Amino acid sequence: MVRVLLVDDEPSVRVALKELVEARGWEPLLARSGAEALDLVDRADAVVTDFSMPEMDGMTLLRAVRERDASLPVILLTAHGSERLAVRAIKAGAYEYVTKPFDVDEMLVALERALEARALRQRNRQLTAEHAIGRRVVCESTVMRQLLDATSRVAGKEITVLVRGETGTGKELIGSLLHAQSRRAEGPLVRFNCGAIPAELAEAELFGHTRGAFTGASQARAGFFAEANHGTLVLDEVGELPLAIQAKLLRALQDGEIQPVGSGRVEKVDVRIVACTNRDLAAEVRAGRFREDLYYRLAVVELVVPPLRDRREDIPALAHEFALRYAERFGAEEVRLAPALVERLTAEEWPGNVRQLENVIARMVALSGGGELGPTAFAGSAAVEESPRPPAVDAADGSGVHTLREQLDTLERSVIARTMTAVRGNQSEAARRLGISRNTLTERLRRYDIAADFGASGAS
What we know:
By secondary structure, the protein is α/β, with parallel strands linked by helices.
């Protein structure tokens, strides 16, 4: 629902504006002062504010709002005979001004135009982001629109970002958007899953190693930090990093320096870090499992990806998007989702979030071969199982019981999975980059239980 923030220290004006907004089916957010308004502004789609208020006047509030979100339209209420002030407000970025006492029709027209402008700006921003990452972004729900707005606002700023959310919510999508909308967009986007590799190898994977640095290191290798130089490094499951590696990551963040394993030299790198986790890192800090200084270094800005159950408005669009994608991928005839099926999907809880929904749609399309899919295609309890995840190595259990073969297999799996992600599931290109035959790659995918289309993009 559209939300309009109404700011005035006069109760009678707030009541009049509230009734007007509610009559149009919009949700009013009420504030008696500029300070109160700033606590609500992130939830608003438009702002109507009086100019003359104690402590923080309308112009000051306007500037504060534009610093947070320049695309949020602000309508200023001014007294009669204040045309000079109104012109100054427009020059400062106000969308419109309306004189008090306001005419209802005039206010409604101004609000409708402001909300249309807001919707257009959001749509343009979304299209730009989709073009940059090469996939559709579904955000019908208010919470996702707010998240994408926040993502766009911080993308261009050279700060680390911590992305939190349950498994399968699409944290990697936010990482991609942060990179695509930043000045580093032309640079590399590199991902590293901190939970998919043993602690003994994590340092070498992150910071690189020299030839002979450890058993099995037959040649030198640049780590993920070096690969991401002048770009963005997304650290998935950063909460899984062992404490010893956390200290070295902190140094890399503070000084922009890394030291490959086995090397006596320090290298400078220019990398922006986006850290993702499904854990409560603040709680991990209190429990002594995560460094406090590293937490504050990573969480300069914290974005939270909502679970699918909190953004049910997105489920129909996501379901249709996945149906089209998998129909094309499987060579199925035109696939249509019956309204009753969409209603059923929308009512589900989806503990595995977007990833689980995608798997369910893919399974239904694969089994149907095309045509209209109804509720019977939804396989009951089998459809709501947890989405499959690649088996992760528990690097933080402290057991340390990994044979050399197990560690090398884990490393090989990580490299293959990373390459498949980089080429978006294109096996021919992955085989070329890895320097192995297509048949060998297919055998490795089967051996390590990696999906044949692993890395192919998914809407979320």
